[in-house]
Amino acid sequence: xxxxxxxxxxxxxxxxxxxxxxxxxxxEFSIVEVIADIEVLNRLxxxxxxxxxxxxxxAYLKVCDKYLLVPYGASVGYGYGPKLILKNRTxxxxxxxxxxxxxxxxxxxxxMREEYPNIEYNIVEVPYxxxxxxxxxxxxxxxxxxxxxxxxxxxxxxxxxxxKWWNDKHRxxxxxxxxxxxxxxxxxxxxxxxxxxxxxEYALKNMDEVLEYSLKFSRIQDRELVKKFxxxxxxxxxxxxGTPEFIGLKKLAEECYKAGLLDKIPExxxxx
Length: 272
Known about the structure:
The protein is α/β, with parallel strands linked by helices. The protein has two domains: 2-77 and 175-258, Periplasmic binding protein-like II (D-Maltodextrin-Binding Protein, domain 2, 3-Layer(aba) Sandwich); 83-170, Periplasmic binding protein-like II (D-Maltodextrin-Binding Protein, domain 2, 3-Layer(aba) Sandwich). Helices cover 39% and strands 22% of the residues. The strands form two sheets. It has a five-stranded mixed β-sheet with strand order 2-1-3-10-4. Strands 7-6-8-5-9 form a five-stranded mixed β-sheet. Strand 6, helix 4 and strand 7 (121-125) form a beta-alpha-beta unit. Helix 2 (38-46) packs parallel to helix 3 (57-63). The chain starts with a strand and ends in a 14-residue tail after the last helix.
């Protein structure tokens, strides 16, 4: 069976999926690796074009009638997450986000509506690696940094770490990205779950080998900085009913619904 597996071209996704896509784990599937920007992956799953994929948590909330959550490999912020940089707060401001279906966009909307209810703002979609540069050069009034760009924000006018803001407000971690599998795969979804579990275990046990591979996907070539970033988001956490991570995802769904970012509160279902 051919399985198209999507992941973004950043070091933590590369680290996470290395053992699967490089044949370090035996599988009955013929894996076709699809490497694309996270917003491209979001749009592909919105059209149900991938059997298995990484997706923004916010995007998953839009397709949970068609996809199941893989309980392993979620990118979760434990008091940290995307960083909002704001250079201007007057007039109608323009803020860049790395995709309209990203969790970064959802968190920005929730933050601005609560903290700056009187500021008018427009959101534009910008490649994640350009957000900081466009703010510094006054093309944008603000932007949200994701991926390893979060580690390079020291020269920028950081407004808030949106993951910290979320944690301070809700006392919950914030799932930013998740792995999902099509419901139509039926019983074979269990095999996908095991692949992700084994891939994480392999990566953490073979750190040097997998980190060397992951560096190829990073704009930062400082090995220790990339390792720090990878370990911020690749953990042996489990996204299932009752865990803080799962409760955080449910809270995100509720908050997005209240803010009009979702048409309904979705039913979350985990592949088992």
